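Researcher: Let's try something more involved. This one mixes different molecule types, so please make sure each is placed in the same coordinate frame as the others.
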Amino acid sequence: MDNIITNFASSAASSSEKKDILASLGIDWTLLGLQAVAFLILVWILGKFVYPVFMKIIDERQAKLDESVEAADRARQAAEESEAKVANEMKKARAEARDIVATAKSEAGQLVEKAEKDARTKADHIIEDARAEIDKSILAAQKSLEKDTLALVKKAAGYATANIADDKFDAALIEKSLKEAK
Amino acid sequence: MINYFAASDVHISLAAEEIFKLGPISITNSVILGVIGSLMAVALLFYVANKLKNSKRNFLVGLVQWTFEGFLKQAEEVIGDKATARRIFPLAITMFFVILVTYWLSVLPGVGSISVDGTPLLRALPADLNFTFALAIITLITTQVYAVRKHGAFGNIGRYFKNPFKDPVSAFEGLLEFVGEFSRTIALSFRLFGNAFAGEVLLILIAMLAGYFSTVVLPFFMIFELFIGFIQAYVFFVLTIIFTALALITHGDHDKEHSPAVKPMSVGQE
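Model: All components are placed in one shared frame. Result:
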């Protein structure tokens, strides 16, 4: 193995002075140390002046993202709460509406019933009044008819008896006629 | 086959090659391209950060921001604890961007082909084991630091070394875990190095074999290399995060959750 690597190594590396494997590979501890120190200095410079700028931008963007996500969560929560509130209100309103409709129906039924009752009572009264009125009219008509009949009978009897009957006779005759008429 | 390449002018070196010396420090071809790539990565990130600060966006800014955000989210999901994930994340994401840019630079024409005295002037940084090994060691140390902070020094040692007379299976498992820490580190560094090195060699070989047709053939391989570069950078990032998550889970968690990547763990919520 050592032989193969040495074969591929440079002529300088394979010279008699550098026979060990590390020398063949070009390992120079001084140079290696210097390169390591130089690299660490580079890391320090970049870590001090460059990377904080990148980190700050990343952090700011992350903070904005977190804030947006939080705001979106809050908005979603508020929307859900509003939705629940609206649903609750709607439920209440529906229940109230149902109550109102039921009350209205019941009141309307009662009103209709009362109106019907009143109307019926009123109609009965009207009918009764009308009947009484009719009875009165009949009675009056009967009395008037009786009077007229008496007058007619008197008149007729007067014509029939002419000079035969006197007033006494007339009266008796009228009374008889009336009784018959009844 | 190897003789054929040896006969031709292909220059393949497993190790990064020295271009010049800066005092006692050897500046290799990978270091040159690595510095350029790292500066480009830093410039890109500063540019994007500046644009973001001023709320001026374009496609590039959006792409980098999207990548950053996606990876951060992934790290938080894998580690589970947001605070811990954000502490480890700068290291992991820097690894991603640096590996990505330096890997992608290896596709540029001239890398591996422009040479000074026979030595290529530029070489991809991930194709240098020094760099990949350095990153892997940093990952190992970081995970251990977080493990000690989480479990305490003795608690962390207790994860690896258990009484074999009391619970031989757990003791053996602990030993495997201890060896695993080192094998992970080596695997992490060699995976990236191997891919980057192989990619670079592949491009050189295709260019040589295709000759004049390389202008037609190479772009396909370059696109493939860009894809591999992204995958390798991503793998390094993910493994760094997973190793950290593994180091943070307690033994009880480990019994329930064998893969932190499958289900996020509640590290900080215990």
